[in-house]
Design brief:
Layout lengths: L1 H9 L6 H14 L6 E2 L1 H12 L5 H9 L8 E2 H28 L6 E2 L1 H11 L5 H11 L7 E2 H9 L6
């Protein structure tokens, strides 16, 4: 129940109009020759400007192979779609990390059953204890009695693309 509610909220991790304008400005700035598209190198520069890292060859190959093969680069709408997806994933990851940190009351980098129970008592006080224990066991993928951020993130994203 709790994870389903968070997944609904995650889908709302969208960029606003000001960010959209920024992406268009970056596209135009990187399209120095005014070709109407970004070459591989232009695309790399745009990603550095927007996200602060140089994309790997594999990432660039993946993006370029997903667009129309009859073109020499990535057009504005395709670029905006790529950037929007990257930004949404980044925003949602930040939200998941924030929730995990709130649950991790002792700042240990993992959640115990006790942490989990306290968190659920606050967000879903009428949820039966056995359900909380079942959820904990399900999320604790390696059954070590701790939920790592990786386990938590997986649980938060589970089924997100199915709905």
């Amino acid at each position: 129940m709790f994870f389903a509610e968070v997944r609904v909220r995650q889908r709302k991790c969208e960029a606003g109009p000001s960010e959209h304008r920024k992406w268009v400005e970056v596209f135009k700035a990187c399209d120095e020759d005014k070709k109407g598209y970004l070459s591989r190198e232009d695309f790399k520069v745009a990603i550095v400007m927007l996200f602060g890292y140089k994309p790997s060859k594999i990432e660039v190959d993946s993006v370029m192979s997903s667009i129309n093969q009859n073109t020499s680069g990535i057009f504005l709408e395709e670029f905006l779609n790529v950037v929007r997806k990257k930004k949404e994933a980044q925003l949602c990851w930040s939200e998941i990390k924030h929730i995990f940190t709130a649950f991790d009351m002792h700042y240990r980098g993992f959640l115990t059953l006790e942490d989990f129970q306290k968190a659920f008592k606050q967000v879903a006080p009428k949820l039966p204890e056995r359900i909380i224990i079942e959820v904990f066991r399900e999320v604790d993928q390696d059954s070590d009695g701790h939920i790592s951020f990786k386990d938590f993130e997986y649980a938060m994203n589970y089924g997100q693309n199915e709905a």
